[in-house]
Write a structure and sequence with these properties.
Layout: E1 2-6, H1 11-22, E2 26-31, E3 46-49, H2 55-64, E4 70-73, H3 80-85, H4 87-107, E5 112-118, H5 141-160, E6 163-169, E7 171-173, H6 191-197, E8 224-226, H7 227-243
Parallel strand pairs: 1-2, 1-4, 2-3, 4-5, 5-6, 7-8
Helix pairs in contact: 1-7, 2-4, 4-5
The structure holds galactose-uridine-5'-diphosphate (GDU).
Pfam families: Epimerase
Subunit structure: Homodimer.
Protein name: UDP-glucose 4-epimerase
Length: 245
């Protein structure tokens, strides 16, 4: 397969590229390196640096890279807190980037996309575990933009035959077994990299937030999935789209 990975230099994207290449697939990456890292790009992937909101750039990549079977979309801003203080940044990057990308995909006859969505599309769960049929009522701009992106896929699917899978996962963690790539954000806000800064001597201590969770001291509860498991889930979703017409 030939797979275009949007955001393939980011945390989950770069791990997915590693899994795809290990499985012998051809990989093309688009990433603007706003939050991704050039060093996280697998040396065997074809890399194009640019922004999804730039239609001429996206068209030029798709003109050159013929034969793309499917797209995996990780290219988005993803900080919940920032999305509340700067909502329009999230509308602009997450929604406008996806809109331009979809225009170009439709024009180039690419009809499959696997989407890195989020559990934040559900908002406050009424019960756990959350079922995918549960009500979606995001409580932050980040989750709202991801839900809107899903809806774009749905309506573009009705009009132009696009087929998609959205994976609404919660927190990812871990690093590639080779140690070549891992998780890093700048500034770092994510819990696990922050914890690791303590034994690495980069930080004195960290605080675990939360006072009213059902834990001994009320600190927060999160579910985690290993990033390599998540990467493989994206590949299984691509295969599902390839095999089921
Ligand atoms: O110093 C810290 C930093 C974080 N936390 C807590 O640790 C948990 C995890 O926080 P992260 O910042 O690592 O991740 P988030 O849960 O905020 O965000 C993750 O889940 C979101 C969905 O809710 C989005 O998908 C987002 O992209 C993804 O990183 C939270 O309860 C947070 O409050 C601390 O206790 N101390």
């Amino acid at each position: 397969m030939k797979i275009l990975v949007l955001g393939g230099a980011g945390y989950i994207g770069s791990h997915t590229v590693y899994e795809l290449i290990d499985a012998g697939e051809d990989v093309v990456i688009i990433d603007n390196l706003e939050t991704g890292y050039k060093e996280a790009v697998h040396p065997k992937a074809k890399f194009y640096q640019g922004d999804l909101r730039d239609r001429a750039f996206v068209d030029s990549v798709l003109d050159q890279e013929t034969g793309i079977d499917a797209v995996i979309h990780f290219a988005a801003n993803s900080l919940v807190g920032e999305s509340m203080t700067d909502p329009l940044k999230y509308y602009d990057n997450n929604l406008c980037g996806t809109k331009t990308m979809l225009e170009s995909m439709v024009a180039h006859g690419i009809d499959k996309i696997v989407f890195s969505s989020t559990a934040a599309t559900y908002g406050e769960p009424e019960k756990t575990p959350i079922l995918e049929t549960d009500r979606t009522e995001p409580t932050n701009t980040y989750g709202e933009t991801k839900l809107s992106m899903e809806k774009m896929f749905k309506w573009v699917g009705r009009a132009h035959g696009l087929r998609f899978v959205s994976l609404r996962y919660f927190n990812a963690c871990g690093a590639h077994k080779s140690g070549e790539i891992g998780e890093a954000h700048n500034p770092e806000t994510h819990l696990i990299p922050l914890i690791l800064q303590v034994p690495n001597g980069k930080r004195e201590a960290i605080s675990i937030f939360g006072t009213d969770y059902p834990t001994k001291d009320g600190t927060c509860v999160r579910d985690y999935i290993h990033v390599t498991d998540l990467a493989q889930a994206h590949i299984l979703a691509v295969k599902y789209l390839m095999e089921r017409k």
